[in-house]
Amino acid sequence: MLAKRVIPCLDVRDGRVVKGTKxxxxxxxxxxxxxxxxxxxxxxxxxxxxxxxxxxxKRGIFLDVVERVSEEVHIPFTVGxxxxxxxxxxxxxxxxxxxxxxxxxxxxxxxxxxxxxKRFGNQCVVLSIDAKQVDGEWFVFVKGGRENTGRxxxxxxxxxxxxxxxxxxxxxxxxxxxxxxxxxxxxxxLSEMLNIPVVASGGAGQSxxxxxxLTEGKADAALAASVFHFGEINLPDLKQYLYDHELPIRLG
Amino acid sequence: MIxxxxxxxxxxxxxxxxxxxxxxxxRITANPSDLKExxxxxxxxxxxxxxxxxxxxxxxxxxxxxxxxxxxxxLLGICLGMQLLFDRSFEYGEHQGLGLIKGxxxxxxxxxxxxxxxxxxxxxxxxxxxFAINSQVGDQDYVYFVHSYFARPKHREDILHETExxxxxxxxxxxxxxxxxxxxxxxxxxxxxxxxxxxxxxxT
Lengths: 252, 204
Description:
Strand order of the largest sheet of chain A: 1-3-4-5-6-9-10-11
Helix content of chain A: 25-40%
CATH architecture of chain B: 3-Layer(aba) Sandwich
CATH topology of chain A: TIM Barrel
Shape of chain A: globular
Low-confidence stretches of chain B: none
Shape of chain B: globular
Structural class of chain B: alpha/beta
Number of helices of chain A: 10
CATH topology of chain B: Rossmann fold
Radius of gyration of chain A: 17 Å
Oligomer: heterodimer
Low-confidence stretches of chain A: none
CATH architecture of chain A: Alpha-Beta Barrel
Order of helices and strands of chain A: EEHEHEHEHHEEEHEHEHEHH
Largest interface: A-B, 31 and 36 residues
Largest sheet of chain B: 8 strands, mixed
Mean pLDDT of chain B: 95
Structural class of chain A: alpha/beta
Number of helices of chain B: 5
CATH class of chain B: Alpha Beta
């Protein structure tokens, strides 16, 4: 049976993992490759490396990280952040990424989805969406949640699927960083509407939240960052917990 | 030495990296005549079937792969590379494959999410449980999949592994020295590395 996936997300700036970690037993907790390996050994089903480097000149450092991850980590990983063009897709895929997530560039020019899917296959095109609720309706936001694009979440997600995205990551801005749980209702609605996998993001604080979003939220995968980095949730414990609650889960 | 065929389709480096981690000697090659000297062949690939066959043909690989497979050289197709081993595919039209395994490639129905993406379980063909390629691989083991089409082998004895996704489909095939895996062993952590190690041991 297809397993539900748990995906740690690592923010990378200038080649280093940004958020602090509490791992005592790895050499360099700020090295994305070391941390990625650690998560992989602990049973992460996939990894996401998100480039938050501000300057374009330092892109090479990030591509280097991608290359080293692909050499040393033998599970799938997605790369996001700073993807503006089909050429950017090509570069990170060439460096060894399995999937590429695109967010605001797709909002600005949706045809990037078609082009990337046609050229590299839809399995590697991930449409990442930041969404917020305004007067009871879900809208797509950009610029870290500051700008409402006016696009409706469900319409945009469906358009993304039709254009060739192979997966959607829905990051709910209202719950992101609050650690009070994922927004299960919108996840369930989106997951039922689309015929591609949906990854839930934003809101993980404890193991119960993962269980909720993977069951009533109907998400295919759950993504989280700080709860893993700060050691608030231990990956093997989380996966055992989900397994004990009868979810299809891959254990070590 | 294992030759990893480079025909311009998709990411070959991950297969190479996985084999390097296992200390298995492998080389990426775009030159068909290299297959005469290799002791094993990996045919990787992502993307569309028809285009991949065209590229293989153009690069001069089609006949060389067939003749090396017939000579008994171990051949492993991965993902699209597995599908290419079959007679034909119905992905965007109808395309002829290498014909090393009898059967067709067809699409999943829409009662499941497509692509079939993520970790899913293996069920070993009981008759092949003790084959070297299955060493330390067991029923219920998880491997990583990303695909929208799957293989329907004509002969049940060609099935190596099966997987459930809305139905039971063939997730790996084996006929003598020709093997194919729909999943990505190079991305499947311990289980995948074990399978690649097993293949590496068949090759020496």
